[in-house]
Amino acid sequence: MYLGIDLGTSSMKCLLIGENQELLKNVSSKDIPLSSPQRGWSEQDPKFWIEALDECLQKLTKEFHLKKIKAISFSGHMHGATCLDKNHQILRPCMMWNDTRSHQECSEIMSDQSVLEISGNIAMAGFTAPKVLWLKKHDPKLFDKIEKVLLPKDYLRFYLTGEFFSDLSDASGTYWLDVGKRKWSTTLLDASSMKIEQMPNLCEGIDQTGFLKKEIIDRYGFDNQCKVYGGAGDNAAAAVGLGLYEEGDISLSLGTSGVIFGSTKNFLKNYHDAIHSFCHCLPNTWHLMSVMLSCTSNLNWFNNSFNSSLEEITKGLSLFLNKEKDIIDAPYFLPYLTGERTPINDPHARASFHQIGIGNDRTSLIYALFEGISFGLNDNYQSLCKTGIKLENIYVIGGGSKNEYWLKLLASILNRDLAVTDASDAMAAYGAARIAHIGYHNLNPSEVLSPPEITNTIKKDNHHFELLYERFQNWKNFYTKN
Question: Which of 181, 238, 275, 399 could form a disulfide with 270 if both were Cys (CB 3.0 to 4.6 A apart)?
């Protein structure tokens, strides 16, 4: 058996697979609390990660002998700054991926433009380096005590093994990594007053990073030869779970946020449009990722604010799709509820309706809602195209992939056919388990990973594309940076 541990923002998932990569068991923890002591702050106490992991492992011991587990690997939310002192004790709560207090430090880091070419990315407030630079300014005594900075899933590794490692996909999001050369950059470290000695060792996702500590073996009944492998950041792990490894196959996730993910054989970048250019967790492979901060969260907001429902807004969209005049006269919606990353990189942007006329009704607002989210995704897609990445097949996953009317609209806006596949919310945990399996058997990823089975193909509508292209150009004019 092989164990994948996925540390999510709100819960932990532990997933077991067998020798044929078949799912054996998937368990989750109760909610992991998140705190926001001040506006723009987002923190989590790592002790809750350990408690959540214990809860999941205890559940597994009731059905399985963990001695049969041959290998373990990880997935986790990225960018979090987990600071340890010389005694390897936690200095403060982890500053999370959605913590935005360090926006000023991002500008300071990028004052030397050479960092953009090294990192391949704009420094964003969510990344690790600007958070640590913020600590130097606002809590210098604590900053001076920092011995190691670990990403969240890598703290779990340290807890289980006593080893300090980070895989390259997760390390890419620190803003300390030379992404093209796949090594720590002294230039980037200097920009946030850090030293290479404060970094964990780097590894590929499928590299072994140690064995379990004796107290962990004794507590849960693991075999003393159970191996631990590098793992991946959450989106890279989910891509492995889906089997997306070859360049040309990309995933479009319609979840709370909207993410387009594609593997590349070379280090490509488009930092001008806030594309994330990271190492993949697999050797000699990179990936590009666009991030739309609010995707289906816009639908949840509308339903809650206007006493609506998924059924109503889906029906409203279906009524609009074949009414060309109504589409032409429909309002516009900017989907920036919580700011935006790709392509505008503006944490202060907010959502808004535009050009509402006396002839517009509730249904036209529903249409504008779906169209605005889709235009935002098209903005992401166009930014990816500028990198030169191959974009042959688009696999749509996430909760939004179940709404066929939305997919018809999205296919016409993107001017691309869309492939729908079954993908559970445990795909990152499954990817982590597959990484453990690949690493343990020293397998070639290209021989093991293949694209997922297509359950439905949504065809684009060329006539609608022409109409929607004009509306997309109008839509782009409504955003103005504060």
Answer: 275
- 167 in helix, strand or coil? strand
Token pair, residue 67, equals 């001695």
Residue 449, both tokens: 């990973």
Q: Which two tokens stand for residue 286?
A: 């990179």
Concerning whether 139 is annotated as a catalytic residue, the answer is no
Distance, CA of 242 to CA of 21 (rounded, Å): 12
Catalytic residue among 6, 99, 170, 234: 234
- The b-or-e profile of 353-389 (16+ CB within 10 A means b, else e) is beeeeeebeebbbbbbbbbbbbbbbbbbbbbbeebeb
What is the residue whose two structure tokens read 């164990």?
A: 3
**Domains, the chain, ordered by start:** 2-230 (3.30.420.40), 243-420+452-482 (3.30.420.40)
pLDDT of residue 482: 55
pTM flag (> 0.70): yes
The predicted structure's pLDDT at residue 398: 84
Q: Residue 188, SS3?
A: helix
What residues contact 84, with CB distance under 8 A and at least 6 apart? 90, 91, 146, 147, 148, 149, 150
Is the pLDDT reported for residue 15 higher than 80? yes
Sort 120 into a burial class: Cβ within 10 Å, 0-12 / 13-18 / 19+: buried
233-287: pLDDT as tens digits? 999 999 999 998 889 999 999 988 899 999 999 999 999 999 999 999 999 999 9
| Nearest CA among 289, 301, 311 for reference residue 256 | 301
Task: Tell me how far apart the alpha carbons of residues 236 and 452 are, in angstroms, rounded to a whole number.
Answer: 15
State pLDDT tens for residues 392-403. Answer: 999 998 888 889
Token pair 């949504």 in the structure block, residue: 458
Residue 426 confidence (pLDDT) above 90? no
Give the pLDDT mean for 96-121.
93
Q: Give 76's strand partners.
A: 7, 233
